[in-house]
Amino acid sequence: MKTIDTNPVQTSKRWHIGLWVAQGLLAAMFLMAGATKLMSGSAELVAMGMGWAENAPFLLIKFIGLAEVAGALGLILPAATRIMPHLTKWAAGGLCVVMVLASGVHISRGEFEVVPVNAILFALAALVVWGRTNKAPIAPRG
């Protein structure tokens, strides 16, 4: 018979590791997506398959890219340095908002095939918010 490990320290460590994996995956994804938006023009983004960029204002595209890069950095740096680690939850929450808005744009354009990706990224970011609040918070440097 298999026993279930109920050691709260071990459980918290598992959550901590799992949340770091989720944060790393999200950060990599949003850093790449944001950098692409910051470094590319509308025509290049459309050629890459981002049809929504065709009629989007230039500054909106750059703002979205900046928000994604800032969110990616916010997922890692405050938690890793333990300087204001609560900002990691705020960064993840901000990325949740970005994914809700992105889903709305894709749905309004009839791009339903992209919405599951938005939903998965939203779920991972929401997991980070919840996990860093309830299961494995990171204490600030003391």
From TrEMBL:
GO (cellular component) term, any one: membrane
InterPro entries in the record: DoxX (IPR032808)
Location(s) in or outside the cell: Membrane
Transmembrane listed as a keyword: yes
The entry's keywords: Membrane, Transmembrane, Transmembrane helix
Residues passing through the membrane, by range: 17-36, 56-78, 90-108, 114-131
Domain of life: Bacteria
Keyword Phosphoprotein in annotation: no
Topology class, membrane: Multi-pass membrane protein
Primary site of residence: membrane
Entry protein name: DoxX
Species whose genome carries this gene: Pacificibacter marinus
Record lineage: Bacteria, Pseudomonadati, Pseudomonadota, Alphaproteobacteria, Rhodobacterales
